[in-house]
C-alpha cells in the first residue's frame, strides 16, 4: 500500500472528522514510527495550511502554488490531497484542537520541537506567497506556535526569517543578541547549520519535497551570519 493510500485510510478511519485524524495516524502507524512521522508532518501541512487559508478569508493561486512547492504529490493522488484539504477547511473543529493533538506526535515531546518548527516554517512559506503576511495570519501562526509549546523568542526568530519589514534583523534571525561576542554568534550559527542539515531533516521524518524550504532557511541564516561578520570586521 502506498503512502498516500495509507494517508487516505487514516482519513477513513477517522470517519471524515479532522479532529480524529491524528489518533488514526497514531494507531495505524504504531509499529512504523518513521512512516508515522511522515504522515503526521504531511497531514499537518495540508490541514493547518487549509485552516490558515481561512484566517484572511482568501485562498490565492500563489498560496496554492506555494503549497505544492513544499508538498509535491503525484497527479493521480491529487483528489486524495484535495479531499483532506477540503475536509480541514470545512470541519467545524477549530485548528487549536487539531494543533494540540498534532503536538502530541512531536518526536521529542519537548518545547521548541524541531519537527513542529518545520511545520511552522512551511506555513510561513505559504502565508507569504502572495507577497504579504496578513495580521490575521501572523496571529494564527503565533497561536499555533504557542500550542506547539514554542517559546516567544523562538517564534520571533522563525518569523524574522520570513517577515522582513524594513529589513531582516540578522541577530534575531540567528537568535543572538548584538551584545554577544563573535565567537558566541559563530557557535550559534554553526549549531543552526548542523540542525538544519538535510540529513537531520530526513531523520525528523520531513518529506524530501520540504527540503526546498530548508534550502531557503539556510540561505537566510547564511546571509544573516555574513552580515554580522562583515559588521564586526568593520568595527
Concise description?
This protein is an all-alpha fold and 235 residues long. Helix content is 68%, strand content 0%. It starts with a helix and ends with a helix.
Present the secondary structure layout.
Layout: H1 3-13, H2 21-28, H3 33-53, H4 61-70, H5 78-90, H6 95-103, H7 114-127, H8 135-147, H9 152-162, H10 170-174, H11 182-195, H12 198-203, H13 211-234
Helix pairs in contact: 1-2, 2-3, 3-5, 3-6, 3-7, 4-7, 7-8, 11-13
Give me the secondary-structure category: mainly alpha
> How many extended strands?
0
- Describe the global form: globular
Strand content: under 5%
Summed up, the helix count is: 13
Main sheet?
Answer: none
SSE order, as H and E? HHHHHHHHHHHHH
User: What level of helicity do the residues show?
Assistant: 55-70%
What is the alpha-carbon Rg in Å? 18 Å
List low-confidence stretches: none
N→C terminal distance: 60 Å
Question: Notable features of this structure?
Answer:
single chain; 235 residues; 0% strand; globular
